[in-house]
Specification:
alpha+beta; Outer membrane lipoprotein wza fold like; wza like fold; three-stranded antiparallel sheet; 8 helices; 28% helix; elongated
Length: 288
């Protein structure tokens, strides 16, 4: 007579540490090799690989920015050089340069006054505040009794509005004259606002909306989508008093914590300095 032996199923007094895994059998004692590694310190090789990956990723972003957004030779001059759009509306204390082809004696460089008018002796003061350069030119031509093509009105200096840029240059605020509606990426490229070390996924436009008595707005700019894919959806058109925040990579932040002699070499190796940079250019220029 055969005897049937019944083995009781093991009690699961504790939850399994390998739940939902292929090796799970309901027992706490059976753990996979990877399950116990989460609290172990990384080995030297793993840390080195992590640092190397970080450096390579940062260098890739740096090379991309230098290729797509080259820094102008003189960023300050590029930012202040008047290049307004046709939609730019002037205001006090903008500086305008006016020329009359038929009346050279009337040529002038004038500042828009606090009353919003352009103080010209000839052909007369005209209202300028809140108007475009074309509108001002047309009215001056009408007063002078000549064709608008014979009158030129140009913006000599934009002073009435500004855009504030916070970037990886030691986190300082940079005040740039506002020269009319301009896409934010075009603006940053023009003024050198995306230097090597900028974090591409941390670019934001903050619109205070104080004058409109509205809540502030925050727009995230997808730099890679704009520059690589040509997707202009997040390329926000700037307005007066907008604030732009550009993040900084860890590589760039680390370079500012180093002593000068080490920081210069580090920035050169990581691509934060231009290719034609020479370590002793300062001393050589002093000698010459």
């Amino acid at each position: 007579m055969a005897v049937e032996l019944r083995i009781p199923a093991p009690r699961t007094a504790f939850p399994s540490s390998c739940a939902d895994r292929a090796v799970d059998n309901g027992c706490v004692e059976l753990r996979t090799a990877t399950a116990g590694l989460r609290h172990r310190p990384r080995s030297g090789a793993a840390r080195s690989a992590f640092v190397l990956a970080l450096v390579l990723a940062g260098c890739a972003d740096t090379q991309f920015l230098r290729r797509t957004c080259p820094t102008p030779p003189d960023p300050k001059h590029a930012a202040e050089r008047p290049a307004p759009t046709a939609a730019y509306q002037v205001g006090c204390p903008d500086v305008l340069e006016i020329t009359f082809l038929d009346h050279p004696a009337w040529d002038a460089v004038a500042v828009i006054d606090v009353d919003g008018r352009l103080p010209l002796e000839r052909p007369g003061a005209v209202r300028a505040d809140g108007r475009t350069l074309t509108e001002i030119r047309d009215e001056l031509a009408a007063l002078a009794g000549c064709s608008p093509e014979r009158v030129t009105v140009a913006l000599a200096a934009a002073r009435s509005a500004r855009v504030v840029v916070y970037g990886p240059i030691r986190g300082r605020a940079r005040i740039v004259p506002y020269q009319g509606p301009e896409p934010v990426i075009d603006f940053l490229k023009r003024i050198g606002g995306l230097p090597p070390g900028s974090k591409l996924n941390q670019v934001y436009v903050v619109r205070p909306n104080v004058a409109a008595a509205m809540r502030p707005q925050v727009f995230r700019v997808d730099v890679a989508a704009v520059l690589v894919d040509g997707n202009q959806r997040t390329n926000v058109t700037l307005r007066s008093d907008d604030q732009i925040y550009v993040g900084e990579t860890k590589l760039s932040s680390l370079s500012r914590l180093m002593p000068d002699w080490l920081g210069i070499a580090y920035r050169r190796v990581t691509g934060l300095l231009p290719d034609d940079w020479w370590p002793f250019s300062k001393s050589r220029s002093l000698v010459e």
